[in-house]
Design a protein that fits this description.
The protein is of the alpha/beta class. The chain is 36% helix and 22% strand. The chain contains 14 helices and 17 strands. The strands form 2 sheets. Strands 1, 2, 3, 4, 5, 14, 15, 16 and 17 form a 9-stranded mixed β-sheet that branches. It has an 8-stranded parallel β-sheet with strand order 6-7-8-9-10-11-12-13. A hairpin with a 7-residue loop joins strand 1 (5-14) and strand 2. Helix 11 (334-344) packs across helix 12 and helix 12 (356-370) packs across helix 13. The radius of gyration is 21 Å and the shape is globular.
């Protein structure tokens, strides 16, 4: 059967390939779910079975954005504890989060996914680690929402087994036992993980953080992930308080602790990594451990500025993350492209910290590296999956910025004229084509109010 083709032409293109190839005016041909060709000028003549031609005049075409860290459930607890540091914020919100159920998780995932997809994300992930007793099939609800939205998705099946009675932060009824957490994680991998080239759903093993899980869960989680051939994810070195916690409890800093439990390697990525010294960065570079940089959340919680320029110079894989929308209420990744550049320029390297093109790479190819999918997504190259975003840059908001990449990164959020995930249309003219945005908004409002009532009732 002949491939169905989509032709996008007359647009600026930032391929984000190894050479950062760009075209002032070029084309991309999509054949079914793959990029067939990309180049300067007009598309080849004589193409067969072209089902759609898109005139990209006034637009920039980039790879789809890749989000490498999120907590979808937090969509229904936005705007709370707005003046707290991380530990105080967690203490304030865990009693609410511990009461989520399947209906809430689905609605929150729909809201989180819709916001990201509408803003150019074609590959998303969710680190979900709150599994209250009797709450239903939370993982299935989240994966179902991602399937409906139509984006590529990694569920980092999280877990916590250190409750308040063991010196942890979450309430005891919101944590699992060691055996239950491992068994449920393995069952999720067995049921949902797809390791094929064009996989839409993948699973990672993801105990929450050093201060909410036991050392044994960290060790056995790493063993489980490697036995199953899936990736590993957790929070790391987010705050000064976390470093102090690790030294008091384990007698070593976070990076040394991670290494002692098998949690450094090319199949691992960590969220945040704000407080990393030269030795920590060298260990990540030596082992190929990746980082999900979340600049907006780090600023919201006053965590600090991650040393992203130093990580990149050392060869550490770095992608961008929205993080949970209880610490980044905007919930979309364009903010992170801009803030990654701006926040890092407040650090030691100042104006030389990051360029606009480096920020775009973090949000595309860097994210694909971190998720272990750089051979499939993250750049516009023949043979890769057709995950593409066409950004409209000919409006008032960007009218006087000549460089389209600079316009995208430093300018106002650009409308998405077209977003494809594997050749399937997810966004058209700045609106989702796969789900009803208004219905999702109503559902998330309803579930947020229900959760607030349940929490207030105790």
């Amino acid at each position: 059967m002949a491939a169905s083709r989509i032709v996008i032409e007359n647009c600026a293109i930032a391929t984000v390939d190894a050479n950062d190839t760009e075209y002032a005016s070029g084309y991309v041909v999509v054949a079914d779910n793959l990029i067939e060709s990309v180049g300067a000028g007009s598309a080849p003549t004589g193409l067969e079975n072209v089902v759609r031609r898109v005139d990209g005049t006034g637009h920039l075409l980039t790879p789809g954005l890749v989000n490498t860290h999120h907590h979808f459930y937090q969509w229904i607890t936005r705007g709370l504890a707005t003046d707290h540091n991380l530990f105080n914020w967690l203490v304030a919100l865990y009693p609410t989060w511990a009461r989520i159920d399947e209906s809430m998780a689905r609605a929150a995932a729909q809201g989180s996914l819709a916001m990201m997809a509408r803003g150019g994300v074609t590959t998303a992930m969710d680190h979900h680690y709150v599994y209250p007793r009797g709450s239903g099939d939370l993982s299935g609800a989240i994966i179902g929402a991602a399937s409906e939205t139509g984006v590529r998705f990694t569920l980092a099946r999280g877990s916590m087994d250190r409750g308040e009675s063991d010196g942890g932060l979450p309430p005891d009824f919101a944590v699992e036992s060691l055996d239950d957490a491992l068994a449920a994680t393995e069952a999720t991998v067995d049921r949902y993980h797809d390791d094929s080239f064009d996989a839409m759903t993948q699973i990672a093993v993801a105990p929450c953080s050093p201060f909410s899980v036991s050392t044994e869960l960290m060790r056995q989680g790493a063993e489980l992930a490697r036995r199953k051939g899936v990736r590993l994810h957790t929070h790391g070195s987010e705050t000064v308080e976390e470093e102090q916690f690790c030294k008091e409890l384990f007698g070593m800093g976070p990076t040394d602790y991670f290494e002692s439990t098998g949690w450094l390697g090319s199949d691992v990525w960590m969220a945040h990594c704000v407080h990393m010294n030269d030795s920590d960065i060298a260990a990540f570079a030596r082992t190929g451990t990746g980082v999900a940089h979340c600049p907006s959340s780090n600023a919201r919680l006053g965590a600090g500025i991650a040393r992203v320029p130093d990580m990149l110079k050392a060869g550490v894989p770095v992608g961008l993350g929205v993080d949970g929308t209880a610490s980044n209420e905007s919930g979309e990744l364009h903010t992170e492209l801009r803030n990654a550049l701006l926040v890092n320029r407040l650090g030691a390297h100042r104006e030389a910290a990051l360029t606009a093109r480096q920020a775009l790479r973090l949000g595309t190819h860097g994210g694909a590296q971190v998720l272990g999918r750089a051979s499939q997504i993250g750049s516009i190259e023949a043979g890769k999956l057709a995950d593409l975003v066409l950004w409209k840059l000919d409006t008032l908001a960007h009218s006087s910025i000549a460089d389209p990449v600079v316009a995208l990164i430093l300018g106002a959020a650009a409308p998405v004229t077209l977003s494809l995930a594997g050749g399937r249309t997810v966004v058209e003219d700045n609106h989702l084509t796969t789900v009803d945005e208004d219905a999702v908004a109503r559902s998330t409002r309803t579930e947020a109010r229900r959760l607030a009532r349940i929490t207030a009732a105790g």
